[in-house]
């Protein structure tokens, strides 16, 4: 499949990434290369096969509805670039 | 053309927070109103390396909701990631369900002005709630609180089966009542634990194809939903009538102006890139599991209503009012049992309690007194300790400052006067003051008795026993 | 006696016999690190003072006759994508340059419970994406056998550190070969356990359905010992499996006579270096001498798995790496006017090129219109690969392949061509796709004196079998006695 410039910019936007103008062609080339290689999967007849999501067939691994308090909640804010009133501070979000 | 030429089509996506003790994928508490970021852990703050583990109660509650709304339960379900970037979503994906929701294809019945109508339920799935963005009044930024991140939700998606704001309102109220009955959500709309995304479109009557719809997100009051639907439908009709097209968009309802506004920007190209969450394993529900959940379901409103009609001879209308809320219905049964006079309890609920709730715009769940206190009130009247007019005052007191009715009447001095001597004294005093009434009575006007009793009640501030007054007046007048 | 030359089981013996103290061991490693680390650049964060303090505590416990773990006082190195509470966990990324983990990964809790002493956090490709450790934001780790060459990747730091005797053993992670390939090119033993045998909780996710924590050791016996420590079901990781407590050292030394070893010919065909091929042929002969039945057969999964791998791994990574947005932790750009710019610019400036390349590929294959053609197809091909391996394990107890198509290549040689770099994983990825256990052990050197590794692949949860088979070969060939890293520059 041929990837266009517009497409890669759209994809980057979905991924919340900027691509610098001068690097677009390089990204395109790399992506195209890898996709061409990955196309091997499209040459296989897998029409009758189920999908495999993970590597084990476990099911119904649940947890009991029991409170376990994570003691040091402060440590979860310690890496924050900016915080205020025990919350993560970001620029104003207008809904 | 006028509004009457159009048909309104409404579909609702209702999000209900489940009343589990802990979050959906970690062991943090879900309590509302805690200090910001105190009910968090590495999982719900999306620390690098943290992994989700599904809470078994969430699956159980969702299956309960499905069974209570006549859904099929999916035997092979799974969790999927819905990817998007937003500052209240720490993982940058919501763990939701895409093509294998836990419940599919149900319905609930609503009573409309044109009779009973079935509203289809497309699906019910489980997912995690996002965090909350607070405004920082001092610094002018926003502040992220993740206490709510990971609180379990079910999303109940209806078919586009509703044709008026009234039907949408009925549907929501019915759904809320069912969720309360099966005790999977406390449905506190003011705390956001029940909220709805409202999809509205219009089409000319008789047309088969749906019109272009718009969506209003995160609405959490019945009244706003009704107003917003009416406004939005009219706006769409006006647009079409003006020869323009409705564009697919997400709208924001503004309560103050009573208008909808477009939420431009961010969602011009939504592509959530759903895929099965590789951190979680398959959910495969056995027949036995589903049967067990089915057996654990409490009696639902429909069946309670039927029982009330047969067992207590309630009218259809009264039974409906009482069963409209699990809280009211439980109050009815419990107070009935304690007092031994369920009929009287029913009357209190249908008349005065409902009136006060209406006047104060309160939900039954916020009734401050309990069944025992209501039962005591009924018993005090039955014993003749107080009159029913004093009873109404006691009820108001119960709403104001709930405590034992016995205590209330003592404190207020509302105990009924049933002492024969005391009653006689009052009767004589009233007769002396009203010679005209005596004359009227003698002239055959029986109504005069009523007037005299009324005067005596006034004199005693409602405390005299009306039956005794009646009897004694007759005795005196016939002497 | 050079303490750092000893294996862990030898160190344990000497600790037990009181020939050595924990402090002596840790000091020997500190000296070795001071001498060799400037050449090798294996560490991102060193914890030497803390390590010495812990060693003193352990020695005083021993002196007081307290009951302690038989591994207490043994040092270790940890790949820097495993969360260590209170210690920087960077994933070799600018994004997490100053990130201090607020909790311990489950494997770290197990390491700490044994009182094994963490000497520091080891270098890697950024977010474990790479095969040469050249994509680290901080430094390039060098191969101790030739300092102008790569140590493999993504766990290049752990592999080089064990090879250079900077740590006696180390923990790494393997998503497509990230333990086995660096182990091979650094001449050490590297094990990727069966998916689900070891908890992933606290291991910074690259591709959740493929990632697995594993070991770097000097020999197979140490490998079994370290596996004993880290294996086990964890209630915090629903993909971890309970297979009961096992002592993996028990199977070592048992006979392999009559054992069936399959050698898939597709794994040493085109693109595999001739000297590597020869080493595998020699290994086949060795196994025959040991009484095993060795047989070539066809198993066409290598290329297919690699294609599947890049689709699935990148798709999962694109989602797993969404959380790095500059809000709660990690790098935050200085260049923003609103929250959208804050998130987007932080991500764009905080991630390196390779990480961004894979996020974009992953986003592409999941995006509407391409999901069925790529992601869904890849998941179906994954089933196909599983089926083919299942067939193979009906006939064979273990499979023998090269680990890496070549020996260590030169620094900079492949870092500009992503696809060429990806082909370094051709022999290892199928094992991750199928969730199988794989071990790489040294099986000789090439004409330049660079180590060659061979891979033994087992059926799910048959770690005991591959350890036994690896151990038999190791005992027979004595690689460590014959070859040592030279720390020379260029061959």
Describe the structure.
The complex is a heterotrimer of chains A (95), B (479) and C (491). In chain A, 26% of the residues lie in helices and 8% in strands. With 95 residues, chain A is an alpha+beta fold. The two termini of chain A are 38 Å apart. Chain B folds into 3 domains: 3-289, no CATH class; 299-408, no CATH class; 420-477, Arc Repressor Mutant, subunit A, CATH 1.10.10. Chain B contains 15 helices and 17 strands. In chain B, strands 3-7-8-11-1-12-13-14-15 form a 9-stranded mixed sheet. A 3-stranded antiparallel sheet of chain B has the order 6-5-16, with no helix packed on it. Chain B has a two-stranded antiparallel sheet with strand order 4-17. The longest helix of chain B has 20 residues, at 222-241. The radius of gyration of chain B is 29 Å and the shape is elongated. Chain C is of the alpha/beta class and 491 residues long. Chain C contains 16 helices and 11 strands. Chain C has helices spanning 8-16, 22-40, 48-63, 106-113, 156-163, 180-186, 220-230, 274-289, 302-320, 339-350, 353-366, 372-395, 418-422, 429-433, 463-477, 479-482, and strands spanning 43-46, 75-79, 117-122, 169-174, 189-192, 212-217, 260-264, 293-297, 398-402, 438-445, 451-458. Chain C has an 11-stranded mixed sheet with strand order 1-3-2-4-6-5-10-11-9-7-8, sandwiched between helices. At the A-C interface, helix 1 and helix 2 of A face helix 9, helix 10, helix 11, helix 12 and helix 13 of C.
Short description:
Chain A is of the alpha+beta class. Chain A has helices at 5-14, 24-38; strands spanning 62-63, 83-84, 87-90. Chain B folds into 3 domains: 3-289, no CATH class; 299-408, no CATH class; 420-477, Arc Repressor Mutant, subunit A (Orthogonal Bundle).
């Amino acid at each position: 499949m041929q990837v266009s410039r517009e497409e890669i910019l759209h994809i980057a936007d979905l991924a919340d990434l900027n691509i610098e103008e001068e690097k677009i062609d390089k990204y395109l080339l790399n992506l195209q290369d890898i996709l061409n290689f990955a196309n091997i999967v499209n040459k296989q007849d897998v029409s009758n096969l189920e999908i495999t999501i993970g590597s084990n067939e476990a099911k119904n691994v649940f947890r009991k509805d029991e409170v376990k308090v994570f003691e040091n909640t402060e440590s979860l804010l310690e890496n924050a670039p900016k915080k205020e009133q025990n919350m993560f501070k970001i620029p104003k979000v207008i809904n | 053309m006028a509004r009457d030429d159009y048909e309104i089509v409404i579909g609702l996506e209702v999000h209900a927070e489940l009343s589990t003790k802990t979050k959906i994928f970690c062991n943090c508490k879900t309590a509302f109103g805690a200090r910001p970021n105190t009910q968090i852990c590495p999982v719900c703050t999306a620390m690098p390396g943290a992994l989700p583990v599904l809470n078994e109660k969430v699956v159980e509650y969702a299956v309960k909701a499905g069974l209570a709304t006549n859904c099929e339960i999916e035997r092979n379900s799974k969790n999927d990631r819905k990817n998007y970037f937003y500052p209240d979503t720490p993982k940058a994906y919501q763990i939701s369900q895409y093509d294998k929701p836990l419940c599919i294809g149900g319905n609930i019945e609503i009573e409309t002005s044109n009779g009973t109508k079935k509203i289809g339920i497309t699906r019910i799935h489980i997912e995690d709630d996002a965090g909350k963005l607070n405004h920082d009044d001092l610094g002018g930024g926003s502040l992220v609180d993740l206490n709510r991140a990971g609180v379990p939700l079910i999303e109940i998606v209806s078919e586009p089966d509703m044709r008026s704001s009234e039907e949408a309102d009925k549907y929501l109220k019915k759904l809320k009542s069912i969720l309360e009955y099966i005790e999977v959500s406390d449905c506190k709309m003011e705390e956001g634990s029940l909220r709805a995304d409202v999809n509205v479109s219009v089409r000319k009557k008789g047309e088969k194809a749906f019109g272009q719809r718009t969506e209003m997100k995160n609405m959490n009051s019945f009244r706003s939903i009704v107003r917003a639907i009416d406004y939005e439908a009219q706006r769409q009709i006006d647009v079409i009538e003006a020869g323009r097209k409705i564009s697919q968009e997400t709208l924001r309802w503004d309560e103050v102006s009573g208008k909808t506004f477009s939420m431009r920007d961010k969602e011009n190209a939504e592509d959530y890139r759903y895929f099965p969450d590789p951190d979680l394993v398959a959910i495969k529900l056995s027949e036995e599991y589903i049967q067990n959940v089915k057996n654990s379901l409490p009696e639902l409103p429909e069946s309670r209503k039927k029982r009330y009609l047969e067992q207590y001879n309630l009218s259809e209308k009264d039974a409906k009012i009482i069963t409209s809320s699990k809280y009211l219905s439980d109050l009815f049964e419990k107070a009935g049992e304690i007092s031994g006079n369920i009929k009287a309890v029913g009357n209190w609920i249908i008349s005065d309690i409902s009136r006060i709730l209406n006047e104060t715009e309160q939900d039954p769940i916020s009734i401050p007194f309990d069944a025992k206190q209501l039962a005591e009130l009924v018993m005090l009247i039955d014993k003749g300790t107080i009159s029913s007019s004093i009873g109404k005052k006691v009820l108001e007191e119960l709403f104001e400052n709930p405590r034992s009715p016995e205590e209330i009447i003592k404190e207020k001095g509302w105990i009924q006067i049933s002492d024969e001597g005391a009653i006689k004294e009052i009767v004589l005093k009233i007769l002396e003051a009203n010679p005209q009434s005596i004359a009227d009575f003698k002239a055959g006007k029986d109504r005069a008795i009523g007037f005299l009793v009324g005067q005596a009640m006034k004199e005693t501030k409602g405390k005299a026993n009306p039956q005794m007054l009646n009897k004694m007046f007759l005795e005196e007048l016939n002497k | 006696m050079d303490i750092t030359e000893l294996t862990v089981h030898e160190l344990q013996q000497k600790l037990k016999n009181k020939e050595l103290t924990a402090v002596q061991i840790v000091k020997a490693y500190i000296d070795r690190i001071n001498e060799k680390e400037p050449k090798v650049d294996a560490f991102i964060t060193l914890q030497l003072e803390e390590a010495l303090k812990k060693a003193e505590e352990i020695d005083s416990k021993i002196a007081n006759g307290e009951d302690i773990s038989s591994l207490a006082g043994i040092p270790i190195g940890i790949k820097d994508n495993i969360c260590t509470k209170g210690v920087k966990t960077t994933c070799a990324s600018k994004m997490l340059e100053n990130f201090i983990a607020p909790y311990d990964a489950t494997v770290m809790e197990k390491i700490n419970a044994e009182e094994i002493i963490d000497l520091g956090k080891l270098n890697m490709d950024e977010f474990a994406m790479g095969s040469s450790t050249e994509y680290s934001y901080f430094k390039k780790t060098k191969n101790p056998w030739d300092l102008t060459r790569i140590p493999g990747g993504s766990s290049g730091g752990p592999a080089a550190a064990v090879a250079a005797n900077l740590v006696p053993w180390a923990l790494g992670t393997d998503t497509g070969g990230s333990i086995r390939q660096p182990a091979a090119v650094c001449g050490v033993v590297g094990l990727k356990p069966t998916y689900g045998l070891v908890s992933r909780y606290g291991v910074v996710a690259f591709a959740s359905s493929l990632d697995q924590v594993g070991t770097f050791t000097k020999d197979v016996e140490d490998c079994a010992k370290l596996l004993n420590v880290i294996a086990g079901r964890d209630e915090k990781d629903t993909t971890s499996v309970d297979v009961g407590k096992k002592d993996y050292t028990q199977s070592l030394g048992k006979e392999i006579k009559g054992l069936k070893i399959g050698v898939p010919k597709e794994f040493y065909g085109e693109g595999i270096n001739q000297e590597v091929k020869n080493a595998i042929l020699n290994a086949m002969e060795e196994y025959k001498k040991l009484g095993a039945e060795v047989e070539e057969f066809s198993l066409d999964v290598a290329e297919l798995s690699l294609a599947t791998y890049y689709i699935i791994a990148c798709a999962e990574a694109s989602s797993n790496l969404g959380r790095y947005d500059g809000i709660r932790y990690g790098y935050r750009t200085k260049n923003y006017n609103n929250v959208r710019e804050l998130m987007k610019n932080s991500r764009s400036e905080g991630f390196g090129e390779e990480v961004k390349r894979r996020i974009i590929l992953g986003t592409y294959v999941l995006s509407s219109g391409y999901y069925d053609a790529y992601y869904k197809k890849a998941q179906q091909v994954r089933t196909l690969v599983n089926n083919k391996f299942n067939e193979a394990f009906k006939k064979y107890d273990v499979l023998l392949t090269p680990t890496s198509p070549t020996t260590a290549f030169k620094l900079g040689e492949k870092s500009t061509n992503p696809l060429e770099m990806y082909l370094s994983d051709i022999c290892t990825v199928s094992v991750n796709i199928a969730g199988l256990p794989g071990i790489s052990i040294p099986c000789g050197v090439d004409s330049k004196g660079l180590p060659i590794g061979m891979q033994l692949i087992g059926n799910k949860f048959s770690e005991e079998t591959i350890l036994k088979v690896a151990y038999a070969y190791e005992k027979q060939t004595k690689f460590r006695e014959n070859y040592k890293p030279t720390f020379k520059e260029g061959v």
